[in-house]
Structure formats: structure tokens, C-alpha cells
Amino acid sequence: MSTSSTEKHVSSRGCLKSRRSRIIAGLVVFVVILAAVIPPVVVTTLRKKHNSMGPKSKVFVPLYVYPAPGAWSPLEDVVSSHPDVNFTVVINPGNGPGPDSLPDANYTREIPKLASHANVRLLGYVHTTYAQRNISLLRKDIETYAAWPKVSSNPDLAVRGIFFDETPQQYSDNAVAYLQNLTDFTRGLNGLGSDPFIVHNPGAIPDSRYLPSADSTVVFEETYNTFQTRNGANLFTAIPNSNRSQLCAVIHSVPNSVEGSKLRSLVKEARKVADELFITHLSTDYYASFGSQWSEFVDLMDK
Fold first, then answer.
1. 28 CB-near residues (< 8 Å, 6+ apart)
2. By the 8 A CB rule, do 290 and 77 touch?
3. 43 or 166: which carries more pLDDT confidence?
4. Which keywords describe this protein according to UniProt (predicted)?
5. For 28-37, 142-151, 189-198, which range has the lowest pLDDT when averaged over its residues?
6. CATH class as words, domain 55-302
7. Structural domain boundaries in the chain
8. C-alpha distance from residue 274 to each of 79, 97, 118 (Å)
9. Is this model's pTM higher than 0.85 or not?
10. d(CA 206, CA 217)
11. 199 within 8 A of 214, measured Cβ to Cβ
């Protein structure tokens, strides 16, 4: 039986309405999905942009804290809780390795604990008195550090490089030869690892011709105020023939008010130009203990 034209029109309209409903329902579902997916993506992108701290740097620690029980815990705790942060730690038992073949029992107990962490590199302290100290005395100090694993029969009682304090700023042929001699001597010894790490500390920007004889050089060891008044990170851009992988910065006496976003900005600025970095709010004995913002500093170095 045939259908009238009016019935066909009504049927056609019903079909169109049904199609429209399906299309609208599909659009609603699509919009709901977009609303669920896009905001997290946008937020994540913005968060990543906001959290960007630039290139990572190692935490540099002049550990002149005597290792009485628990005294090194603030360092050991952050080393354990930040496995993705690398630490370069300088130990100084007695203005060098000390007068004996091994340091005292507190050091022999605590050094292996630090050395056992894959993200820690220990360095032994020696001073050069601005390349004036008798070089045979320095060699003796370096040999003492290198012999620790053998003398103690403990492979973890070891350092993996040398921190040369009081290196010169002003250029001289004799000083360049002096420091290169020490570098060659250090790298030729057994007991300091396969590739001993060498750090120089002039405490300020030295003649760039000293840089090749070290893996890292402390080019800033000053107060927060000095860092700010000298235009911060721009201090280091003037060092010719250098790159950030060769540079270390130590910033102390940071005001207690520099925390949160202010500390974050300071760390970010210094990280741009220094591959190793130490920042402390302490203004006295700043290598003999840990400041109030120590953990916050390390947290920021993990960003």
C-alpha cells in the first residue's frame, strides 16, 4: 500500500530530527572529552615552563664539618633522597689528609658511607698557598689520600680527586707549570680512581690560562650581596676560552629573606653559568655546618 506525500514529509522530518540529535549528541561528547583532556595538557605545559630551571648543576659541598656521630646526616639525607642530583664533596681531615696515614676513627667510619653513594664524588683537600707551597709537601698529601684504600683495606675509604685550595689568579709561567705538574702527578697515581677529578680554588676569576689544568675552577667565592652588586651570572661570561662545565660558584651569606621564589631565582641564575654550585645562608663558619635553607637549596638543584 502506498504512502501519502504528507506522511512521507513527516517521516522525512522525523529522520532529519533524529540525525540532528545524533550529531548534537556526538558534538557534546567530543566537547566533554576536549574539556577533560586539554586543560591537564595546558596546565602540564605551563607547569613545565614555570618549573624550568635551565641546565642541571652538581651540588658542590666544602665539607669541613667534623664527622661526630650524626654531624654529616644533613648531607647523607639529601644524597639519599635526591638520587638524580650529583654531589662533589670536599673532605678536609686536617688542613689536608692529616699527619697520619689514615684520618681518625670518625672519618674512617663516615667517609665510606658517603663514598658508597653512586651520586657522590669525594675529593681530598690540599692547599697550594698560591703556588708557593713546597711541591713535595703537596705530593706527600696527595699520596696519603691515594693510599687510604690500601692502608685501610677498605676500597670505600677513598677519594676520587683533589681539591687544590688557594690557587693563583694572576698569571705566571711558574705557577702554570706548578699546577700542571700537580695535575699530572695526581692523575698518575693509583688509589684515586681511573680518572681523578681536579678542582682549583682561586676564589675569584683567574687568568683563563690556568683553566686547562683543572676539571673545574671555583671562580666565585663571595657573599650574596657581592653576587648581586656585580650583576650576578654576568660575572662569568667575561672569562675567555671557558664554558660552564669548567666553572664552580660558591655563594654564602644569603639573607634569610631569600627563600621560596627568591631562592629559586638565585639558583636558576647561578645554574646558567656554573656546572657546580654551593649556596648557603650562613655568614660565618659556612663550611662547618649546614644552613637553614640547605634542604630547599638541594630541592631546587633537583628541578
1. none
2. no
3. 166
4. Membrane, Transmembrane, Transmembrane helix
5. 28-37
6. alpha beta
7. 21-51, 55-302
8. 20, 28, 22
9. no
10. 9
11. yes
